[in-house]
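Incident log, support desk, overnight shift.

02:14 A customer reports that sequence design results differ from what the structure should imply. Their input is reproduced verbatim below. On-call engineer (initials T.W.) acknowledged and began investigating.
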C-alpha cells in the first residue's frame, strides 16, 4: 500500500512531457497535475486520526486504498487537463488518509520491540518506491502510454485490498468525541495553502503574489489552528502530544533531517541529466543504489536499537549524510557514473540510520489510545519535510545561477546546493545527539525481555 502511494507521487513527473503532447499543452501548463497531489494530501491528513478512531483502522485503510485505486483508474481515462487535475486531487485526498491509517494500524498492532524488527521489512517498499519510480515511469511511457503510470496501480492494489479484507485484524482506539469541524477547516486550509506556496515558490518566485498570498494564508491558518486545537477539549490534531520531549524532538529531527536526505534524492537526477547530459535511464539506475544502502543499514540499526538507542544511531546517520553530501559537492562534468553510484550507495547507508529509529522512538512515550493521533502528526511532519526538500534545492540553484544564464544552472550551483544540504544535515546531527532516548531504549529492552522470558522458563522447566 505504501509502495503504491509513494510511487504515484513520484512517477507522474516522468509522464508530463507525454501528457503535454497529447493535450497539446506545454509541460509548464501541467504544473497543477503535480502540485495538486501534495496539496490535497496535506489537507486530508488532519481528519485521518478521527476517522481511524471512529470507524477503525482496517476499514479506513481499505476504503482509502480503494478510493486511491478508483481515482488512479479515472486519471488514466482523463480526456483533458481539468479532468486529470480533478482526479489527481482525489488521489491526494485518499493518500492523505492512507498514510496515517496504515501507520496507526501498524503501531497499534505491534509493540516497540516488534516495530523495530518489522521495520527491517517495512523499509523495503518505502525505499524501493522512490528509487524505482523514475525507471518504472520511463518504461511505461516509452513502451505503453502515459496512462499506464496510473493504471499500473490497479494490478498491484486490487490484490492488496482483497488480502486486507480477508486477513487484516481490526484495531480501534477509544471512541472519538465530537468531530472538530473548525479544527479541520483551519488545519486543512493552513496545510494546503502552505504546501502550495512551498511547492510553487521555486517555480514562480518566492516574491510572486500567488506564492506570498498562499504562504501568508498558510501561516495564518496554521497559527489559528494551533491556538484553537490547544484550547479545545477534543481536538482533531492532538498537539498536546508535542509536550513530550522525545516525541517533539524526534519529529523536529524528521522535519529538518528530511530536507538534506530528500533534497539529495531530488538533486541527483537534476545533476546527472542537466549538468552531465545523462539520459533518464542512466539517471534512474545511478540513483537506485541508495535503496540498497538503506536496506543494509536498517538491518544493523534494528539489531542495535535496544542496546545503543536511537540517539546514537540517528546522530551517526545524519553525520554520515553530511559527509557524503560533501563528497557529492566535489562532482563535476567528468565524474563517472560508477563514482556517483558509489556515493549514492554511501548516502543510503547513512540514511538507513535515520528513518526507522526516529519513527519508533517518537512513539515510545505515547499511550496506545493516542497512537492514531501521533501517527497523524508524524505524517504531517514528514510530508512538510518532503515538500521543503525540493523547494530548498531549487531555491539554492536559482540563487546560484547568474541572471544572464539561459540554460541549466552551472556546476557551481550544484556544488552550492550540496554544501547547503550538508550544512543542514550537520546541524541536525548535532541536535540528534541530544535526544532523550532512555525511554525508547527501555521500551525496546522490555519488549525483548518479555519475548525471551517464556523461552527461558520452558528451558528451565525441562530440567
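02:41 Re-run completed on a clean worker. Output:
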Amino acid at each position: 500500500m505504501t509502495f503504491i502511494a509513494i510511487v504515484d507521487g513520484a512517477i507522474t513527473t516522468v509522464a508530463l512531457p507525454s501528457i503535454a503532447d497529447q493535450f497539446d499543452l506545454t509541460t509548464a501548463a501541467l504544473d497543477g497535475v503535480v502540485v495538486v497531489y501534495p496539496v490535497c494530501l496535506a489537507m486530508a491528513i488532519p481528519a485521518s486520526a478521527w476517522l481511524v478512531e471512529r470507524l477503525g483502522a482496517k476499514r479506513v485503510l481499505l476504503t482509502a486504498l480503494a478510493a486511491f485505486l478508483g481515482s488512479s483508474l479515472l486519471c488514466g481515462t482523463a480526456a483533458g487537463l481539468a479532468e486529470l487535475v480533478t482526479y489527481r486531487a482525489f488521489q491526494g485526498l485518499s493518500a492523505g488518509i492512507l498514510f496515517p491509517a496504515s501507520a496507526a494500524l501498524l503501531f497499534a498492532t505491534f509493540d516497540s520491540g516488534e516495530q523495530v524488527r518489522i521495520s527491517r521489512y517495512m523499509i523495503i517498499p518505502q525505499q524501493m518506491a522512490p528509487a524505482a519510480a523514475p525507471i518504472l515511469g520511463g518504461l511505461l511511457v516509452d513502451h505503453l502510454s502515459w496512462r499506464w503510470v496510473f493504471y499500473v496501480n490497479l494490478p498491484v492494489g486490487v490484490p492488496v485490498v482483497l488480502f486486507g479484507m480477508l486477513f487484516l485484524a481490526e484495531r480501534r482506539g477509544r471512541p472519538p468525541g465530537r468531530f472538530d469541524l473548525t479544527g479541520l477547516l483551519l488545519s486543512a486550509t493552513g496545510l494546503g495553502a502552505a504546501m502550495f506556496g512551498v511547492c510553487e515558490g521555486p517555480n514562480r518566485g518566492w516574491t510572486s503574489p500567488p506564492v506570498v498570498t498562499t504562504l501568508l494564508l498558510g501561516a495564518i491558518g496554521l497559527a489559528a489552528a494551533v491556538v484553537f486545537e490547544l484550547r479545545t477539549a477534543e481536538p482533531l490534531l492532538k498537539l498536546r502530544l508535542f509536550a513530550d520531549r522525545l516525541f517533539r524532538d524526534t519529529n523536529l529531527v524528521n522535519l529538518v533531517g528530511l530536507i538534506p536526505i530528500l533534497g539529495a534524492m531530488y538533486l541527483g537526477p537534476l545533476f546527472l541529466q542537466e549538468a552531465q547530459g545523462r539520459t533518464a535511464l542512466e539517471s534512474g539506475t545511478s540513483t537506485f543504489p541508495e535503496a540498497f544502502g538503506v536496506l543494509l543499514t536498517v538491518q544493523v540499526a534494528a539489531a542495535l536499537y535496544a542496546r545503543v538507542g536511537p540517539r546514537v544511531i540517528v546522530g551517526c546517520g545524519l553525520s554520515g549524510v553530511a559527509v557524503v553530501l560533501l563528497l557529492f559537492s566535489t562532482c563535476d562534468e567528468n565524474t563517472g557514473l560508477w563514482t556517483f553510484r558509489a556515493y549514492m550507495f554511501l548516502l543510503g547507508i547513512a540514511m538507513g540510520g535515520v528513518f526507522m529509529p526516529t519513527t519508533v522512538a517518537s512513539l515510545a512515550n505515547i499511550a496506545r489510545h493516542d497512537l492514531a493521533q501521533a501517527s497523524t502528526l508524524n505524517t504531517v511532519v514528514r510530508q512538510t519535510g518532503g515538500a521543503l526538500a525540493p523547494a530548498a534545492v531549487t531555491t539554492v540553484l536559482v540563487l546560484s545561477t547568474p541572471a544572464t544564464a539561459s540554460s541549466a544552472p552551472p556546476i557551481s550551483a550544484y556544488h552550492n546546493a550540496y554544501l547547503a544540504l550538508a550544512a543542514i544535515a550537520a546541524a541536525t546531527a548535532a541536535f540528534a545527539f541530544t535526544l532523550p532516548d532512555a525511554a525508547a531504549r527501555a521500551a525496546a529492552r522490555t519488549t525483548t525481555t518479555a519475548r525471551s522470558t517464556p523461552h527461558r522458563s520452558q528451558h528451565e522447566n525441562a530440567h
